[in-house]
Structure formats: C-alpha cells, structure tokens
Amino acid sequence: MTNPAGAPQSRRDSAIGTVLVGAAVLIGVILLVKGYRADGGLVATSKPTVTSSTTIQAPTTTLPARPAADISVAVYNATGGGMVASKNRAVLESHGFRQITIGDAPSVVPETQIFYTPGAKGDAQQVAVALGMDPQLVQALPSPPPAPIGTATVLVLAGPDLA
C-alpha cells in the first residue's frame, strides 16, 4: 500500500507535524506560566511599573493649614448605643478642635460618615485624620442633610467603627 516514492513526503509531513505539536505545547506552557487576567488579557510577569500611585497618595497627606480650633464640627452618635458622640468629642478636643456640638443621629449607620459643607473639604479631612480615618472618605453634605448641622461646616455620623 505504501509508495516508496511517497516515503520522503510522509517523513517530511511527520516532521512538520512534530514541530507544530511541539510549538503548540511550548505556547501552552508559556501561557500557563504567565497566566490570564479575568478579562482575558495576559498577566504581566515583568516588574510592575509605578505610574501614578505616588500621585494618588499625595492628597492623603496634604491637609490645609486652617487651625483645628477654627473648624466647627457636629458629631452625632449613629450607633444606637451610648456615649459615642461624647467619646469622639473628647478625641477631637485632644487634637485642638474647640467648636464641637454633639447629639444622637436620627438613624443608625453601618460605618462612620464624615460630610462637609461647600468649601470645607479640607476641614473634614482634618477631622477624619483626628478620628483616625482615611481623609479621602469625606463626602460633600447631601441635601437634605442626614442630621441637623446647624452652623457646623463638618458633620460626623459616628458609626460602630468609632464606638
């Protein structure tokens, strides 16, 4: 059945097949070693390039020079428990804040929220730092406010994380 003249062609086809299978296996191994991201792209294995992480972190350490004593803060207990607003007033006072009103929030929150009035974002960031929180988590005061703010420029709804 075999053609003696076809024998070199058969060997050449076998050699090409072996090379293709070997290349496919090599590519498969490379892909397994490098891996894939969830979105289907290859995961980079080279050293990570730092691009903007330093730029992103800079605002967390840059706080305005306004004295803490000039910042008016309203602290509300939003845990449903007792003495949370008083405890956090003492913490703020230890950091130089003097204009602090306290009370009970109209509702409970799962975690502390810090709000600021227009132009007072830096004030709210100082309050966040004094309370041991990330200053980037402060938010603009919504309308209507979640609690009475009076003349304060910063509103703290003290949640269980500050209890």
Q: Could you characterize what this model shows?
A:
With 163 residues, the protein is α/β, with parallel strands linked by helices. It has two domains: 4-49, no CATH class; 67-162, Alpha-Beta Plaits (2-Layer Sandwich). The chain has four helices and five strands. It has helices at 7-34, 53-61, 84-94, 121-130, and strands spanning 72-77, 99-104, 113-116, 139-140, 154-158. Strands 2-1-5-3-4 form a five-stranded mixed sheet, with helices on one face. Helix 3 links the parallel strand 1 and strand 2 (99-104). The relative contact order is 0.16. The model is unreliable at 52-62 (pLDDT under 50).
Using only C-alpha atoms, the radius of gyration works out to 31 Å
Shape: rod-shaped
Biggest sheet statistics:
5 strands, mixed
Query: What fraction strand?
Result: 5-15%
Q: At the third CATH level, what is the topology name of the largest domain? A: Alpha-Beta Plaits
Spatially, the strands of the biggest sheet line up as: 2-1-5-3-4
Overall strand count: 5
Helix content: 25-40%
Terminal CA distance reads 89 Å
Number of helices: 4
As for the number of domains, it is 2
Element-level helix/strand string: HHEHEEHEE
SSE class: alpha/beta
Going by CATH, the architecture of the largest domain would be: 2-Layer Sandwich
- Unreliable stretches covering 5 or more consecutive residues: 52-62
Mean pLDDT: 81
The CATH class of the largest domain: Alpha Beta
